[in-house]
Amino acid sequence: MNLDLILGILQIVLIATTPLVFAGIGELVTEKSGVLNLGVEGMMLVGAVSAFIILVITGSYFLAFFVSILSGIIMSGLFAFLVLFLMSNQIATGLALTIFGIGLSSMLGKQYIGTPIDGLSPWFFVIFSFIIVFLVSYFFYKTKAGLILRAVGESHNSAHALGYSVIKIRFLSIIFGGSMCALAGSYISICYAPMWQEGMTAGRGWIALALVVFATWKPERVLIGAYIFGGVTILQMNLQALGLRFPGQFFSMAPYVATIIVLVLISSNKLRIKLSAPASLTIPFYKGR
Amino acid sequence: MIRIITFLSTFLVFAFGSAYADPKKVGFIYIGPPGDHGWTYMHDVGRKYMESQLGDSITTTYLENIPENADAVRAIRKLADSGHDLIFTTSFNYMDQTHEVAKDFPDIKFEHATGYIQADNVATYSARFYEGRMIEGHIAGHMTETNTIGYIASFPIPEVVRGINAFYLAASKVNPDIKMKIIWVFTWYDPGKEADAANTLINQGADIIVQHTDTYAPCQAAQKAGVYAFGQASNQEEFCPDAHLTSIEDIWGPYYAERAKAVVDGTWSSGDTWDGMDKGMVVMSPYNTKLMPASLIQEAVNMEVGIKDGTIHPFTGPIYNQAGELVVPEGEVAPDGMLLGMNFYVQGIDGEVPQ
C-alpha cells in the first residue's frame, strides 16, 4: 500500500515536471550561446495550440508534434531574425514574443476550445526528456561543436576572430530552444492535460526561465532544479491531502524565491564567473567589430 | 464651483442620453477566457442571454483574462472611461478594485459577483451554489466505495469553504465513515495543476473527485483513472462521460437581463442578490443515468424539490465546528450572515482552512 502510494506520487511528479525540463533545457542552450529569449511562455502556447489543432484535424499524433515543433522553429526563427540580424533588444523582443504568442495561440485556438481529444500516454516524452538533457550535457562538454557554442556565448568577438560564425551558431541555438519550448507546450496540450485552453501553460514558461538561472546554466542542474520545483508542488499537495496543515501559498512561490536567491548570489561579479553565466548573455554581436 | 460643474455635466449627459436613447453599454470583466467551459463560460452564456433578451437596447463588451490585481483596476476603469453604463465584475477578488473605480464614477452602475460589500452604485450578486454541493455530497456518500472523497479547492474564501462544508454535511449524513481529502491549489485556472491535484487525490484513495476550480482537467483525470467526478459551473459530461455524475450549473442570464433592463429603464438600484435553485440561478446538470442507480437519481431530484420549496436547507442544525462547539442549534438553519463569512470547517473534516 505504502509502496503504491510512493510510486503513484513519483508518477505524478514525473508527468508534471517533464514540460519544465523540455522548456528549461531548450532555453539553456539558447542562453549558452549568449542569447536570452524571454519568449518561452509564448512559444510554449503556440506549440500547444498548433499540436492540438493538428491532432483534431488529422488525428495523427506524429503530425501534431511535428507541426508543433515546426511552429516553435518559426516563432524562434522570427525572434532570431529580429535580434541577430536587426539587432533588436533581446529582452524587449523576447517579451514581445511572449505577448505575441499568447495572443496568437488564443486566436488560433478559439474554435477548438472544448474539443474533446484522446490524450497520449506521457511516458515516451518523460524518458525522452532525460535523454535530451543527457545529450545536451554530452554535446556541451564532450564535443567540439559544444565547446564552440559555449565559446560564442562567453565571448562572441573571440569566437568570431577564430573564424566561427557567431550568427549561424546563435541562430541554431535559438531554433533549438524554440522547438524544445514548442515540444513542452504540445506535451501539455496532448499528454499532460489533454485539452486546449487559452493560456493553459499557466506560467510554466517563466518557471523554465527561472530554472536556467537556478541551474546556473548547467544542463544536469536544470533536470535537478525542475524536479525540485515539480516535486515540491506535488509533495505539498500530498501533505495537504493527508490532512496536514501546510502553507500551500508558500510552495506556489517557492520556485521564484529560490531563483531570486540564486540571482542574488550570482550578482556578485566574481561568483558569476564561477557559476558559469555566459559572459555575452544579452549582448548583441556586430559583425563589423 | 467644481461641484456645480460636475452637477451640470452630469445633468447634460443625462439630458442628452435620454434624448437620443442610445443603446446602453454593458461591460463584463472576466477572470478567465469565455472558453474555459466553467466559471467564465457560464458568465458569457449569461451575457449572450441578456443580449438576446434586450436586443437593440444594449450593447455588450467583455475583457477576458483579467488578473485579480491592480490590472483589474485598469480594466474596469477602461470600461468606465469608454462610456459603459453597467459593469459586471465577475470574480470575488475584484472586490477592492471594483469599489475603487466605482467611487470615481458615481453615475455608472457596477455589479460585483460573489461579493459582500455594496455601495450606492455597486450591487453584489451571487448564487447559492452550496445547494448544489449538498446534492453532490448526498450522491457521493452513496457512490463512494473507498469512503474517500477528493476535493480540489481554489482559494480559501467563504464561497469555497461553504461548498466544502455543505458537501461534507450531506455526504456524512448518508455515510458516516466518509473522509474528505482537500487540496488547495491557490489558482482558479491551471489545467496542469488541477490534473496533478486530481491524480494526487486518486493516488491517495479517493474514488470521487470534486472540484472548485474552472477547467475540466480534474474530470478528465478521473475518467482516465476510472473514478467518478463532479464537473464545475457548466455541464462537462462530454469531456468525461464515464466519470461525470453531475455538475452544478451557474445560470446568470435571467439576472443579467433583469439588471440591464433596470438600467435601460432607469430603475436600477443597489442591493444584494443571492438566489439559488428556487429562482433557477443554480441548476443541476442531467444526472448520469449510466453510472447512477435510478433510486439515487430520484433521491437527488427529490432533494432539488425540497431545496426549491424551502423544506430542505443544506445547513440545518445541529452543526458543530471542528472544536466541537455547536454553531447551528438543532432545528435551526444557518443564517445568511454566517454562510457569507464562513471560514471554518465543520466537525469531521480534517485539516484547517489555510489563512
> Which superfamily, in CATH terms, is the homologous superfamily of the largest domain in chain B?
Response regulator
Structural class of chain B: alpha/beta
Find the count of extended strands of chain B (DSSP E, 2+ residues). Answer: 14
Return the CATH topology of chain A.
ABC transporter involved in vitamin B12 uptake, BtuC
Radius of gyration of chain B: 21 Å
Strand order of the largest sheet of chain B: 2-1-3-4-5-11
The number of distinct structural domains of chain A comes to 1
Query: How would a crystallographer describe the biggest sheet of chain A?
Result: none
Report the uncertain regions of chain A: none
Shape of chain A: globular
Report the oligomer: heterodimer
Specify the CATH class of the largest domain in chain B. Answer: Alpha Beta
Q: Count up the helices of chain A.
A: 12
Q: What's the helix count of chain B?
A: 11
Binned strand content of chain B: 15-25%
What is the H/E string of chain A? HHHHHHHHHHHH
CATH superfamily of chain A: ABC transporter involved in vitamin B12 uptake, BtuC
Number of strands of chain A: 0
Helix content of chain A: over 70%
